[in-house]
Amino acid sequence: MQFEKKSVWQQIDSKTNDKIYEYAEDYKVFLDKAKTEREATTYIIEAAKEHGFISLEEALKSKIKKGDKIYLNNKNKSAVLFIIGENLEEGLNIVGSHIDSPRLDLKGNPLYEDSSLALFKTHYYGGVKKYQWPTIGLSLHGYFRDRDGIEHNIIIGEDENDPIFYINDLLPHLSKDQNNKNLKEAITAENLNIVVGHSTYGVEGDENPIKRNILTILKGKYNLDEEDFAFAEFEAVPAAKARDVGFDRAMIAAHGHDDRVCSYANLLAILEVENPKKTAVALFVDKEEIGSVGNTAMTSMFFENALAEIIDNMGQYSDLKVRRALANSSVLSADVSAALDPSFKEVSDEKNEAQVGYGIAMAKYTGSGGKGGSNDANPEYISRLRDLFRSEDVIWQISGFGKVDQGGGGTIAYILAKYGAEVVDMGTAMLSMHAPVELVSKADAYMTYKAYKAFLEKFE
């Protein structure tokens, strides 16, 4: 039988259409409130508490049992939510997403003055096209502890009454040399300097008066000294709010769809699961965009350690039981995939590329070249997923990642697969991936949530 591919919009009724748009409104709120991994973790933990989850520390004070809802806040930058099932040794249903996104970080000594401007020096984070970042409005999101030990969470540029920040670019009239460079070289990393001030009004002295004025403002408003930057975390992201796109409002433009479109679906899905037969787990990890390194990333053992604590509390602990629980698990690596772009079809294999509006995308493998660095999912596993999605009216599609040898990408799938678990990449297909502002279909975002909920609740 010939396979016929139809979009979500061609297969739904008016009730589902309404649900798609309702879901999108809530998702936009999450996008605007959770622009950094710290803010996403805070949002996730608060939502979990509202739905009856308790901290792992609190859960360990008594006997953990089936139906218990447990969260782990890992250093305020990653999190895990558990709903305990019948027998952990038989495996878990895990959806693993990441909450970091490409951005610009401030260097440890960022502030300087030059040519009547005060500027911040930055270091880009993740795979960005550097030429996309100049001349857009930026906001600053930061965390630091001052000399008095007081914690400060700072957001500047998101409120309409806030100032925004800005990176300069050359005017076309003087861009002869720049225009002769390739895109990668036209804007260098050291060009990504953020304008943060200009006035010298009321400042005495000739040496760096603009810089001194900025430091005075920072000290007065936030008790931040110049030295504090070295011990702080400041991220520059687009100041724009999530917005509907098109006359039909069927798409969303926003910063951080990669991977918050999957993370929000993951969160909402597990919040709606009740008493699953198999333990349901939602992972929200950091540092995926730079190789999943560090103690808040998937390569650290915070998830495995939390699982060991739970198994030990239930009186079942042994290293072997933890290993069996992980090896018997089923995993969806919840990350975005590249959608077919009508303006750049030359980089894609149209027959095997995901398209916006055709549902959640399943990528049997990612990687690059000869499948290098990928997790290649087993057909026995993904056939069972197909059966589940058919029974739950989840609309899905097959996804590639561009033409062979054109490039490629990866996710956290291979990290979870090292335990012996069955893993496949399933997430939302998107356009303009890793741009300051990215584009997704509301239909795909909703089907991503439906797929994760069905998986966490019913996959066996």
TrEMBL record:
One of its GO terms (molecular function) is aminopeptidase activity. This is M18 family aminopeptidase. Its EC number is 3.4.11.-. InterPro entries: Peptidase_M18 (IPR001948), Peptidase_M18_dom2 (IPR023358). The lineage of its organism: Bacteria, Bacillati, Bacillota, Tissierellia, Tissierellales. The keyword Protease applies. Transmembrane segments: none annotated. It comes from Peptoniphilus olsenii. Its cofactor is Zn(2+). Pfam families: Peptidase_M18. Signal peptide: none annotated. Belongs to the peptidase M18 family. The keyword Zinc applies. Gene3D superfamilies: Aminopeptidase i, Domain 2 (2.30.250.10), Zn peptidases (3.40.630.10). Keywords: Aminopeptidase, Hydrolase, Metal-binding, Metalloprotease, Protease, Zinc. It comes from the Bacteria.
